[in-house]
Amino acid sequence: MNYITGTNRHQSYFATLEDQVAADNPVRLIDAFVDKLELAKLGFTNTVHKSEGRPPYEPGDLLKLYLYGYLNKIRSSRKLERECSRNVELHWLLKQLQPNYHTIADFRKLHRYKRPRICVWRGFG
């Protein structure tokens, strides 16, 4: 009896992230929306960077992740962290960045009152 066979897992597979996300995918709207925002005027600023350690994530990237989670009903910072490592849409949206749950939670806490301002500023509220 013949069965449908899958692809060999050890076979090379070349594809860009751009090819894996459809042109009408909602993540493209999130990306364009956040890129048009004047984040500094809305109060989204970088955290204070000390001379040692990694530089901080760009606030726009974390806002994109926050909005993606909101639109897809993913509220948990730990679940968003997990999705960053396995979700192709988030790989594309965040340029393969994978912030940890603590970074995501800190961003939410720091900017919890700014989401309504974004909606009003862009005419959604």
Strands, helices and their partners?
Blueprint: H1 17-20, H2 26-36, H3 59-71, H4 77-86, H5 88-93, H6 101-110, H7 115-121
Helix pairs in contact: 2-3, 4-6
Structure description:
The chain has 125 residues and is mainly α. It has one domain. Helix content is 49%, strand content 0%. It contains seven helices and no strands. Helix 2 runs antiparallel to helix 3 and helix 4 packs across helix 6. The chain is elongated, with a radius of gyration of 17 Å. The chain starts with 16 loop residues before the first helix and ends with a helix. The mean pLDDT is 87.
Cα-based radius of gyration, to the nearest Å:
17 Å
Order of helices and strands: HHHHHHH
Which stretches are low in confidence, meaning pLDDT under 50 for 5 or more residues running?
none
Most strands sheet: none
Helix content: 40-55%
Query: How many individual domains?
Result: 1
Tally of helical segments: 7
Distance between the termini: 60 Å
DSSP summary, beta strand count: 0
